[in-house]
Design a protein that fits this description.
By secondary structure, the protein is of the alpha/beta class. It has five domains: about 100 residues, Arc Repressor Mutant, subunit A, CATH 1.10.10; about 190 residues, Orthogonal Bundle (Tex N-terminal region-like); about 120 residues, YqgF/RNase H-like domain (Nucleotidyltransferase, domain 5), CATH 3.30.420; about 140 residues, Tex RuvX-like domain-like (DNA polymerase, domain 1, Orthogonal Bundle); about 70 residues, Beta Barrel (OB fold (Dihydrolipoamide Acetyltransferase, E2P)), CATH 2.40.50. The chain is about 50% helix and about 10% strand. It has a five-stranded mixed β-sheet, with helices on both faces. A five-stranded mixed beta barrel has the order 11-12-13-15-14. Strands 2-1-3 form a three-stranded antiparallel β-sheet. It is globular. The relative contact order is 0.07.
């Protein structure tokens, strides 16, 4: 990559050029973001996942820009207009809008008013007016009358069209207007369609809305643009035509000289036409697009944070689980799972109206708990969730069996997916949904990777943001979560394995097939025998895969096989085996890290090894906690201002957090009511009720504390 791009990326990230350059070189060698950030800290100066991902993003952006530059240079060269100065300006450009401004005068055009005027032979007249080389344009225009140009006004109008296009293609003019437009207000007004459609009511607050474009919150802008797309709003910037026209005219005069008399009048008319017809729509759209790109980044960042918190939700671990997908008329679907998540049994009970088969349902649940050795119960948080939780607690379950509420977001998507059909080809969607609820409790990460992140209900305007940027962020987020936790090589599904650094769907399938044909892996070295898993893939994935019963305890740690010899040397220096060293914090404290620095393995790697030896394979996730809503709160009518209630955060946005307090409607803690402590997704909180709008079914909350 060119030095100008490396310098630019380094400035954007606030890091050194060599860190960026080494990252890019590692990408070119086939390394992944998780591998680089975890095992190549010496090369990157300790850049974390987020920083490495940013380097990759900008590397991709500038690689595409370089291709665009090559295309532009080729086009201009073919026109015979590529000067050394123009080539230099293009090659050194770092902003796409500036690049397109430079290219604009040379870009092949569709037929415009200016091209029509040129075809009529009016460009020489326009040139004289542009260069302030004619005192009386009216008299000059008479020289250009012909069969196609019948009057002096026709000639002047055509010349003005050419001037207007030149103004609109001036990089200096466009940049000056961008600076002005960025200081303006974005405003929206209701359209006629809004008054005729009740669907528009959700956008009521934007029917006459105005705010500085640089200050508008991301959720406000995205909502306005969505409403505009649906035809309920017109959105634009309150540009000042007079101020902008004066700026264009003044810059023209500075570059040429002040025209006078009739020429000044003609130039000013061309300026006004250029602004109204060409520049204002173009620059306005650019600035709104620019603001949307900023809003997209903010919204996608919130989505990524929420997804991280969701995927790293505390698991209950390998426990025999009863999963219940609650319902009224269609009953509660129950699936009993063993500690590995395998389906043992399923049936439907009807404890609620209209059937109300309470005794039969109690006997069924009690029997399943006893027969299948149930240790935990997972209840979906959808319709009839509270009622089902109350029912289960009245069954008289053993004290050691804990009950958890589990988010159902995306469960229906999974149930009907190809993944679910492959896992349970003989079961219907209701059984698959119940199984997914149970597995989410046991290991949220392993189960949720099977579902498109956009279906998990943790985003903000996810369908309105840049989908390529969203996909990139979510893929990076899932990969970060999977690799930071580590994956059990002998039990992981192909969907989980596919997110491990360097593997992907094809190799994941090969690993599962090899595992099925040869039994479980007994060492990481066996990965070399997996078809098509070559040395590079092994380098990238080995450190993130765990083998619990391997003869070498390092195979169940985040220590990379390339560093096993360092651990062996540490152990030998202490007079013990590597097996005796792993997990022995007393021995580990005796090790001087500096003694083991060698080649590419510096102190960052050695210190990581020591941390891992102290607590090998440590899962960074906390353990799941049980939770109960307030017993006497069932409907929004039960709420009173001042009540203090337990709740679970269901979504976090830029403007606040939504909280489930055990009724059908979620409440909102606005950012101003968080005391500076933003809660996390699925976190247990205590809140107080500060407002209840029964008509609009809106609940306002204040954060009291977090668990």
């Amino acid at each position: 990559m060119k030095t100008i791009y490396i310098d630019c990326i380094a400035r954007k990230l606030g890091v050194k050029d060599w860190q960026v350059e080494n990252c890019i070189r590692l990408f070119e060698e086939g390394s992944t973001i998780p591998f680089i950030s975890r095992y190549r800290k010496e090369k990157t100066g300790g850049l974390d996942d987020a920083a490495v991902a940013e380097v990759k993003h900008w590397n991709d952006v500038f690689s595409e820009m370089e291709k665009r530059k090559e295309s532009i240079l080729s086009t201009i060269d073919e026109q015979g207009k590529l000067t050394p100065d123009l080539r230099s300006r293009i090659e050194n450009c770092l902003v796409s809008s500036e690049l397109e401004d430079i290219y604009l005068p040379f870009r092949p055009k569709r037929r415009t008013r200016a091209t029509v005027a040129k075809e009529k032979g009016l460009e020489p007249l326009a040139d004289k007016m542009w260069n302030v080389a004619v005192a009386d344009p009216v008299a000059e225009a008479r020289k250009y009358l012909n069969d196609q140009v019948e009057t002096v006004e026709d000639a002047l109008a055509g010349a003005r069209d050419i001037l207007a296009e030149r103004f609109s293609e001036s990089a200096v003019t466009r940049d000056a207007l961008r600076q002005i437009f960025r200081t303006r207000r974005i405003q929206s007004k209701a359209t006629k369609a809004a008054s005729d459609n009740p669907e528009s009511s959700k956008y009521r607050s934007y029917f006459n809305f105005s705010m500085p474009v640089q200050k508008i919150p991301s959720h406000n802008l995205l909502a306005m643009l969505r409403a505009e797309k649906e035809g309920f709003l017109s959105v634009g910037l309150d540009a000042d035509p007079e101020k902008c026209g004066n700026k264009i005219y003044y810059d023209f005069c500075q570059e040429h000289r002040y025209p006078s008399g009739k020429l000044a009048e003609q130039v000013r008319m061309a300026v006004d036409d250029s602004f109204k017809r060409l520049l204002e729509p173009s620059i306005s759209n650019e600035i709104i697009k620019e603001a949307k790109e900023k809003a997209d980044i903010e919204s996608i960042a919130v989505f990524g944070d929420n997804l991280t918190q969701l995927l790293l939700s505390p698991p209950v671990g390998p426990k025999r689980t009863m999963a219940i997908d609650p319902g009224f008329r269609n009953g509660c679907k129950i699936a009993c799972l063993d500690e590995h998540g395998n389906l043992l049994h399923h049936e439907i009970i009807f404890p609620h109206p209209p059937q109300s088969e309470k005794i039969k349902s109690i006997m069924a649940v009690s029997g399943m708990i006893e027969e299948y050795g149930i240790e935990v119960i997972a209840i979906g948080n959808g319709t009839a969730s509270r009622e089902t939780e109350d029912f289960v607690k009245r069954v008289g379950i053993p004290e050691n069996v804990k009950v958890y509420t589990v988010s159902e977001d995306g469960a229906s998507i999974y149930s009907a997916s190809e993944v679910a059909r492959k896992e349970f080809p003989d079961e219907d969607v209701t059984v698959r949904g119940a199984v997914s609820i149970g597995r989410r409790l046991m290991d949220p990460l392993a189960e949720l990777v099977k579902i498109d992140p956009k279906s998990l209900g943790v985003g903000q305007y996810q369908h309105d943001v840049d989908q390529n940027l969203l996909h990139e962020k979510l893929d990076n987020t899932v990969a970060f979560c999977v690799n930071s936790v580590g994956v059990n090589l002998n039990t992981a599904s192909p969907y989980l394995l596919s997110y491990v650094s360097g593997i992907g769907p094809a190799l994941a399938s090969n690993i599962v097939a090899f595992r099925g044909a040869n039994g479980g892996f007994t060492s990481r070295e066996q990965l070399h025998k997996v078809p098509k898993l070559g040395p590079k893939a092994f380098e990238q994935c080995a450190g993130f895969l765990r083998i619990h019963d391997s003869a070498n305890p390092l195979d169940n740690s985040a220590v990379h096989p390339e560093c096993y010899h360092i651990v062996d040397k540490m152990a030998a220096d202490l007079g013990v085996s590597a097996k005796q060293l792993v997990g022995n914090e007393e021995l580990i404290r005796k090790i001087n890290p500096a003694r083991y620095v060698e080649g590419d393995f510096g102190l960052p790697t050695i210190n990581d090894i020591l941390k891992e030896l102290a607590k090998p394979g440590l899962d960074p996730r906390q353990q799941a906690q049980d939770f109960s809503f307030a017993d006497d709160i069932r409907e929004i009518d039960d709420l009173k201002e001042g009540m203090e209630l337990p709740g679970i955060v269901t979504n976090v946005t830029a403007f606040g957090a939504f909280v489930d307090i055990g009724i059908h409607e979620n409440g909102l803690i606005h950012v101003s009511k968080m005391r500076g402590e933003k809660p996390k997704l699925h976190q247990k909180v205590m809140v107080s009720v500060i407002g209840v709008d029964l008509e609009r079914k809106r609940i306002s909350l204040r954060l009291i504390s977090k668990r």
